[in-house]
Amino acid sequence: MRRLSESFDELRFGFIVVDPSKRGKGYGKRMLQLGLKFAFEIYGAKKVSLSVFENNESAYFCYKSVGFDDVILDKTETYYVLGEEWKCKELMIENR
């Protein structure tokens, strides 16, 4: 988790990784819930954002299941690795 500015109003989750043998058991969802609790209750964040590669559907649906919403951007963030194109989706959740 990192700040995007000097304030703690908006925080950003970085890499969220679950061991392949543990996927599908709710660990990722619980990890996100605890991270969001920390961000909102300890840091007092107003919103938390993250991005996910478009082809990582299981992670995308995990983020959606804890309340993250899609953010529409003017330009899609795209990376090129070993001749492959990797596009990202941006998501955000606001403290309610």
What are the key terms here?
96 residues; alpha+beta; Aminopeptidase; six-stranded mixed β-sheet; 26% helix
Q: Which quaternary structure do these chains form?
A: single chain
Low-confidence stretches: none
Strand content: 25-35%
Shape-level CATH architecture: 3-Layer(aba) Sandwich
Distance between the termini: 19 Å
What about the largest sheet? 6 strands, mixed
Describe the structure.
There is one protein chain. The chain is an alpha+beta fold and 96 residues long. It has one domain: Gcn5-related N-acetyltransferase (GNAT) (Aminopeptidase), CATH 3.40.630.30. The chain is built from two helices and six strands, in the order ββαβαβββ. It has helices spanning 27-42, 57-65; strands at 2-3, 10-12, 47-53, 69-71, 78-81, 84-94. Strands 1, 2, 3, 4, 5 and 6 form a six-stranded mixed sheet that branches. It is globular and about 40 Å long. It starts with a strand and ends with a strand.
Question: What secondary-structure arrangement, pairings included, does this model have?
Answer:
Elements: E1 2-3, E2 10-12, H1 27-42, E3 47-53, H2 57-65, E4 69-71, E5 78-81, E6 84-94
In brief:
With 96 residues, the chain is α+β, with helices and mostly antiparallel strands.
